[in-house]
């Protein structure tokens, strides 16, 4: 609760000189550290600081960091539990529920920070306004003024707002009144900068000097007045002044209270003050030393101290206060000897509960009750005998068990006093009984809400219940969890039956015991009374409606005027419409696909189902009892206060009289014993389960499990207490079972079971229960849900793409926000905001769009922010934050918003060839990045886009952006950007290669070449001359907004390292592969292997899943994701895994467990060769030619006996092109397979030769064919 405080006793010891005499007593001040409980509305930053102080005091601050190596796991777990308990003790009760099971203090601390330390722009704006408008309030001290100012600065620091120290100092000076102008001028005179600490110290010193001057002036005036008085007493009479006479009282005036009618000696106020002073000094003993005083304050009449002294000289724990003992056993002959050999009788032994320094309550056992003592003693010897280690250092005594501080004491006057207090008294039994009674009525009324219970308690209808808060109820969560609530619908009806709502629910996959699959409900709008009837088929609606109509109109004497329903076939059938027409009933229908218009009936059905789920879960009954539960739930709803009735129950509004039959209500499904009369020796009662009431009969409706039938009886005994006690601990038992049975199963997760619709209505309507709740995931044995009515077919993504435990972590950094709100609330919001501002600046500079109103007939596409982090250079920790505004191109329509979308990118082989040439000819290699590359493409279509989030123009929030240039996310953006860049390069007299359209080159005057490779917005430039590279950079910067990344270090995830002295360039994907291994669970505990694929793996399609269980298991395996990650590594830098990846990629459409084992084998191979990459080295022999190797594997495919082609080409000793692929046709012989392999290799060789010729490099082509049979055929 707000204002509630947790007090922790803290002893402060003043320091003294080591040379001080031992007889002097040190002054001791006993203070209490009060921590306000956090309730979600008070200052989280200050609460966090106070809790941190408590953790420091208890030496538990280590748990907020990583685990030290010198502490074992068991001790670390105990310390974490201790710290979690401490933190939770400072939380309000309502805020503890999400963190009840948390056992890691670090995670608990981080969750609280994420939830309550909201780093939004609104909070920053509010605090900055407070800072800049901060002014000195008259009447407060400078110390208070500085505290208020520092509080604002601390709140801004918690929001990661960085304010320069000089700005802090200037804002503080600006807050001062005009009296401090002279001081402000003095502080700023002749200084180039000013610091906050200097200003704060100057202000405090200035205030102290003013106080001292004021004190001195008052003392001088007092001395002058006293001197005159002494002169009068000594007989030296001076000249009197008229002003001094006014200070003396009149003859009949009291000199103390200044009231007339008595003198000072008879003043009653003075006498009362002297009594109070005497009483306060009665229990204070002063030592004879004038330098030091030591006071012992007594809180009890008999002089017993309430503190505990940690004594190494006593044999047992001893206490003189009998009321402190929680358990006590009397002794007759016990004796305790004091230091002077005097004997004190021990009258008993027992246990006392102590609240320690960390808030935990511990029990002190074997405590002797010695009434003659005046102090409470804790024996250090007794503690040590129980395994505790005693340490005394720095004035603090600790009793430690392992790494846990069990007891702590502080030194005062050479005695160690316990930091803690005594817990006196027992548990509040009455309060517990009240809570149980409230919970009992909560369950009796079908898990009614707290507001409804309070309304009934105020009317005195619930016996024994009080208006207190309900505890956490798991059955309410399981039965009532929803996502979105319907809006409140209001019908201005003047009487009952003026307006009736109806709806049909079903079909239920679980038939009730009576065979029902549906139920129909009728709700009176005026009273909100509900009638529910179960049905076996939907065509029974008309028959039930006529039966209900006749009954209700006869009982009430009123006619139904209006009936609202959905467009279900049962309501729009000709017989139903004819009945309503004949009876004069007006029909209201809902709009198609709009169940909210029938909100009263839909919400009532949801309320009914919530109660049914709660009651079935609470009673532990199967779904076959849903019909009995729905009937009893309608009975309860009619007796619960309704918000539409201003707190009155539907029965009270309907009949005009309050309902008083609550005493007959019982918990649904509770054990009930009904009276039977059989033979004389048989039991007189049988056990059954309470199901509700029967219509027209004064008796209870019971289910007899033995006979499998419903019994109605009047003589029934209910056992509700057992059910209440069982449910009280159900949550803890269930949590224990879950923890004990949980196992780390590899990628085991239950799939989402799609729901089929069994209805054939022309206009289906989704029931409120299905419309409101998220799709649930149930195990196979629970696929039969209670009911789903007219459910629409939902398009769900494949199960293999769902979030999966350890393997579904993205390869990217996990701290990258996925949306704008997440970015502005993250700890790096300043950097993300800066990157977004830079992106918007580029967009406006490029005139990407103009704000217009959306024309009629046009539709605007959306947009979103996409965030990424990029390393500035290899081996450095500085990270570049990047934000991109991306249009939601998936909403574009072909032929309207776009036509052609193809855009070429440079081949990876071209990149490797360029690096080989750089190593061979010692070329300069530079890298550039185009800022907002796609923004430079001109659009040919008319496209409108919504304004970006966080940057909407004030006053034009509903306007849209008419795109004038291309934008990221548009389908035609890559093509438009490439066309624009290609025109520019051709205009600069560069030639586009015929073999790779993203490779540009130009021959210079000295015969050398300059090369440029383009991959979307990343560029590599290579040339012998640095001047030519700089000239090209200048040309590009004049046309586009460029970012010079300097020497190439990393491109497309490939890391480039160059040793220019040795003429070497290496290319690897170390960082990428480490993330892949981490993503798929490969760590230091995994065993590496030496080959990409072992010979024992004979993969074929026969290993695919054959049973539903195997298919279910493999549906959870990220097989395609793992193969895709390996495939990218194979394409870039790892030709050694080409053949292995080629094999496992054949079964991506239907992988089996054997295929998954092969993929994990490849990952284990990557684990041992994560540093392996490509090496290009200057060589006078191999650098002058292209060397190729080709081979084939005849009939290696076990499914279709197709052969495999494999080849690799190298330049300067490093591979530049390779492939391992299954041949498209079946070879009839090894010779035919080798011919096809050589053909593919020659085609690649021709492409390589053509590209090298374009680049001005003429090299000899050497081809090595492993099998020589082809050469002699």
Automatic annotation (TrEMBL):
GO molecular function: aspartic-type endopeptidase activity; nucleic acid binding; zinc ion binding
Keyword GTP-binding recorded: no
InterPro entries: DNA/RNA_pol_sf, GAG-pre-integrase_dom, Integrase_cat-core, PolX-like_BBD, Retrotran_Ty1/copia-like, RNaseH-like_sf, RNaseH_sf, RVT_2
Keywords on record: Aspartyl protease, Hydrolase, Metal-binding, Protease, Zinc, Zinc-finger
Key word Zinc present: yes
Basic residues bias (residue ranges): 234-247
Disordered: annotated span: 1-28, 209-247, 732-790
Any single Pfam family the record assigns to this protein: Pol_BBD
Name under which the protein is recorded: Transposable element protein
Organism: Prunus dulcis (Almond)
Lineage: Eukaryota, Viridiplantae, Streptophyta, Embryophyta, Tracheophyta
């Amino acid at each position: 609760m707000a204002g509630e405080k947790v007090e922790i006793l803290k002893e402060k010891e003043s320091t003294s000189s080591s040379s001080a005499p031992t007889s002097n007593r040190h002054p001791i001040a006993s203070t209490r550290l009060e921590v306000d409980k956090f309730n979600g509305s008070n200052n989280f930053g200050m609460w966090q600081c106070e809790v941190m102080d408590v953790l420091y005091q208890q030496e538990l601050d280590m748990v907020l960091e990583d685990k030290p190596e010198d502490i074992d796991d068991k001790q670390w777990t105990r310390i974490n539990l201790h710290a979690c308990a401490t933190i939770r003790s400072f939380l309000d009760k309502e805020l503890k529920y999400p963190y009840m099971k948390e056992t890691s203090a670090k995670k608990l601390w981080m969750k609280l920070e994420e939830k309550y330390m909201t780093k939004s722009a609104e909070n920053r704006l509010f605090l900055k306004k407070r800072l800049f408008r901060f002014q000195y309030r008259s009447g407060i001290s400078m110390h208070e003024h500085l505290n208020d100012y520092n509080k604002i600065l601390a709140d801004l620091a918690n929001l990661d707002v960085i304010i320069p120290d000089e700005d802090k100092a200037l804002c503080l000076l600006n807050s001062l009144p005009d009296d401090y102008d002279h001081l402000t001028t003095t502080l700023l005179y002749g200084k180039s900068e000013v610091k906050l600490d200097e200003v704060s110290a100057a202000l405090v010193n200035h205030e102290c000097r003013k106080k001292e001057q004021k004190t001195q002036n008052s003392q001088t005036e007092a001395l002058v007045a006293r001197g005159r008085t002494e002169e009068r007493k000594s007989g030296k009479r001076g000249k009197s002044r008229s002003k001094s006479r006014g200070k003396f009282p009149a003859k009949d005036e009291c000199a103390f209270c200044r009231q007339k009618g008595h003198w000072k000696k008879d003043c009653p106020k003075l006498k009362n003050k002297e009594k109070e002073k005497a009483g306060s000094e009665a229990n204070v003993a002063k030592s004879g030393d004038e330098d030091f005083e030591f006071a012992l304050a007594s809180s009890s009449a008999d002089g017993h101290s309430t503190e505990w002294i940690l004594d190494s000289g006593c044999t047992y724990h001893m206490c003189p206060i009998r009321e402190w003992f929680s358990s006590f056993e009397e002794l007759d002959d016990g004796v305790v000897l004091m230091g002077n050999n005097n004997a004190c009788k021990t009258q008993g032994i027992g246990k006392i509960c102590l609240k320690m320094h960390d808030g935990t309550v511990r029990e002190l056992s074997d405590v002797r009750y010695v009434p003659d003592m005046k102090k409470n003693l804790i024996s250090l010897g007794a503690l040590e005998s129980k395994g505790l280690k005693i340490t005394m250092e720095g004035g603090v005594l600790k009793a430690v068990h392992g790494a846990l501080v069990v007891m702590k004491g502080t030194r005062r006057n050479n005695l160690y006093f316990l930091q803690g207090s005594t817990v006196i008294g027992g548990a509040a039994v009455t309060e517990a009984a009240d809570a149980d009674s409230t919970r009992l009525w909560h369950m009796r009324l079908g898990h009614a809400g707290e507001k409804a219970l309070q309304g009934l308690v105020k009317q005195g209808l619930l016996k024994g219940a009080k208006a207190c808060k309900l505890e956490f109820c798991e059955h309410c969560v399981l039965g009532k969890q929803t996502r979105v609530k319907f809006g409140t619908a209001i019908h201005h009806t003047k009487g009952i039956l003026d307006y009736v709502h109806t709806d049909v629910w079903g079909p239920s996959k679980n038939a009730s015991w009576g065979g029902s699959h549906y139920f129909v409900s009728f709700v009176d709008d005026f009273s909100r009374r509900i009638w529910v009837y179960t049905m076996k088929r939907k065509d029974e609606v008309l028959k039930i409606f006529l039966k209900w109509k006749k009954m209700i109109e006869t009982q009430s004497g009123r006619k139904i005027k209006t009936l609202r329903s959905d467009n279900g076939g049962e309501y729009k059938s000709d017989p139903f419409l004819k009945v309503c027409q004949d009876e004069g009933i007006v029909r209201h229908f809902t709009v198609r696909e709009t169940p909210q218009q029938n909100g009263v009936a839909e919400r009532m059905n949801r309320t009914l189902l919530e109660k049914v789920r709660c009651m079935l879960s609470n009673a532990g009954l199967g779904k076959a009892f849903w019909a009995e539960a729905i009937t009893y739930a309608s009975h309860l709803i009619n007796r619960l206060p309704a918000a539409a009735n201003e707190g009155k129950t539907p029965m009270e509004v309907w009949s005009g009289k309050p309902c008083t039959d609550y005493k007959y209500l019982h918990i649904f499904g509770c054990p009930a014993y009904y009276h039977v009369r059989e033979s004389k020796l048989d039991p007189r009662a049988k056990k059954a389960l309470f199901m509700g009431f029967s219509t027209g009969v004064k008796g209870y409706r019971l289910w007899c499990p033995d006979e499998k039938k419903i019994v109605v009886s009047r003589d029934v005994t209910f056992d509700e207490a057992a059910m209440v006690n069982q449910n009280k601990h159900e949550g803890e038992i269930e949590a224990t079972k879950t923890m004990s049975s949980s196992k780390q199963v590899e990628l085991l997760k239950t799939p989402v079971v799609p729901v089929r619709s069994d209805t054939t209505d022309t206009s289906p309507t989704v029931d409120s229960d299905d419309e409101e709740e998220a799709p649930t995931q149930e195990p196979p044995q629970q696929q039969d849900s209670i009911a789903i009515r007219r459910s629409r077919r939902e398009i769900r993504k494949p199960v293999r793409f769902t979030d999966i435990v350890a393997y579904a972590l993205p390869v990217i950094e996990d701290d990258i926000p996925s949306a704008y709100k997440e970015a502005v609330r993250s700890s790096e919001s300043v950097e993300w905001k800066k990157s977004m501002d830079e992106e918007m600046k580029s967009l406006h500079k490029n005139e990407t769009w103009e704000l217009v109103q959306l024309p009629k007939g046009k539709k605007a596409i959306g947009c979103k922010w996409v965030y990424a982090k990029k390393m500035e250079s290899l081996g450095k920790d500085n990270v570049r934050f990047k934000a991109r505004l991306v249009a939601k191109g998936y909403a574009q329509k072909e032929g309207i918003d776009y036509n052609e979308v193809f855009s070429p990118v440079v081949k990876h082989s071209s990149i490797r060839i360029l690096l080989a040439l750089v190593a061979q000819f010692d070329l300069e290699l530079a890298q550039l990045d185009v800022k907002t590359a796609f923004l430079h493409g001109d659009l040919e279509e008319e496209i409108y886009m919504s304004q970006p989030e966080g940057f909407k123009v004030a006053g034009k929030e509903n306007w849209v952006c008419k795109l004038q240039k291309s934008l990221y996310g548009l389908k035609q953006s890559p093509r438009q950007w490439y066309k624009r860049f290609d025109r520019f390069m051709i205009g600069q007299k560069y030639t586009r290669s015929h073999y790779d359209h993203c490779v540009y080159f130009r021959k210079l005057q000295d015969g050398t070449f300059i090369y440029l490779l383009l991959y979307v917005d990343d560029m590599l430039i290579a040339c012998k001359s640095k001047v030519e590279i700089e000239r090209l950079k200048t040309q590009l910067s004049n046309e586009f907004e460029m970012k010079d990344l300097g020497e190439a270090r990393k491109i497309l995830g490939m890391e480039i390292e160059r040793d220019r002295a040795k003429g070497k360039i290496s290319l690897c994907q170390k960082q990428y592969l480490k993330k892949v291994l981490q993503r798929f669970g490969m760590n230091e505990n995994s065993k590496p292997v030496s080959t990409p694929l072992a010979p024992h793996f004979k993969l074929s399609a026969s290993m695919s899943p054959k049973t539903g269980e195997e298919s279910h298991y493999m549906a959870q395996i990220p097989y395609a994701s793992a193969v895709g990650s390996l495939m990218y590594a194979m394409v870039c830098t790892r030709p050694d895994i080409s053949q292995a990846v080629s094999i496992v990629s054949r079964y991506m459409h239907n992988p089996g467990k054997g295929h998954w084992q092969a993929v994990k084998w490849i990952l284990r191979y990557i684990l041992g060769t994560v540093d392996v990459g490509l090496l290009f080295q200057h060589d006078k022999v191999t650098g002058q030619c292209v060397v190729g190797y080709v081979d084939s594997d005849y009939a290696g495919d076990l499914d279709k006996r197709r052969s495999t082609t494999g080849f690799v080409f190298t330049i300067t000793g490093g591979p530049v092109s390779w492939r391992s692929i299954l041949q498209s046709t079946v070879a009839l012989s090894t010779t035919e397979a080798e011919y096809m392999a050589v053909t593919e290799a020659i085609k690649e060789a021709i492409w390589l030769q053509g590209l090298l010729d374009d680049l001005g490099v003429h090299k000899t082509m050497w081809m090595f064919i492993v099998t020589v049979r082809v050469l002699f055929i």
